[in-house]
Specification:
Number of helices: 7
Helix content: 10-25%
Largest sheet: 6 strands, parallel
Number of strands: 16
Pfam families: LNS2_PITM1-3 (PF24694), PITM1-3 (PF24695)
Protein name: Haloacid dehalogenase
InterPro entries: HAD-like_sf, HAD_sf, LNS2/PITP, PI_transfer
Length: 318
Amino acid sequence: MAIACACSALPAVAACPDYTTAANPPAFSGPAKKTFSKFGNTILAGLYKPWHMAHDTIVKAGTAATITGKFDYDAVLHKDLEGERVHAYLYGTGMSGWQYVGNFVTDSDGKVNVPLGVRPVGDYVVRFVVEGDLSGTTGYLSVVDAGRDAVLFDIDGTLTINDFEAYADYVGVKTATAYYYAPQVVNAYREKGYQVIFLTARPYWVTKDGLEWLDIQKVGRWHYHSNPYGDGPIPPDTQKFKTDYVRHLRDVVGLNIVRAYGNATTDIAAYADGGIAKANTYIIGPNAGASGTQPIHGEYGSHLSFVVTPTPVASCRR
């Protein structure tokens, strides 16, 4: 279906990420609450807390976008919400208020795929609301000019001091300890106009905790991409998953990934296979400097000075 765009025209020049607009949406008024279509879902929502999430999406300017929402209940069971209506709303760059996108029925996996149309360059927040209990979640859409400068970060063992993927330990993800000055490094890139990408091997069902961790660290929560495959604590084919997404960002979206951060040998291999030079690959932890990568030793204190001072601003600000 065609989707109207309630937004003003934007200048035809390369734009930096709009980290402000989508993070500060206006007052929101959602749908009226209605009874769940299935009685079993009424019981489900009454017994367990919602654990919904959305897969952030990033597209090149002029490309139609779609965002996927996933709806389930309970942090352990992750029981899918099937056959229920979800409403979607959009707000972002150049818009004066929330736009109603439409309502969609969850499939057998508890998912809805929401077409957002072709949007001007900018950043947008998508709010999903379950009609049966008014629970919800948010995701983000970024529409970028080809060639936008970006910096890529793994999370576990790279920004946090523990590698949850390696230990299959997702208890307490949202309160995991950050390396000293890791959040400041991320924010320094944001302030210089770079598109920040979080690429994590965490399975999609811990996205809620992952985003809360970024909030706790006072780091903007998008663009966040977790592994959509596998139901266990360690999704399969971590290296391939990361390689494929790096290639997508570079070859399809057109991002210029100027630096990538990681800690594991799978990060090193995935970034290399994705076309990121070892000279621009920064590794912390036991594998620091391995295979010709750039080492970060101990924590990010010294590296922060390198990011803040010698690193130029992103090309969108020159």
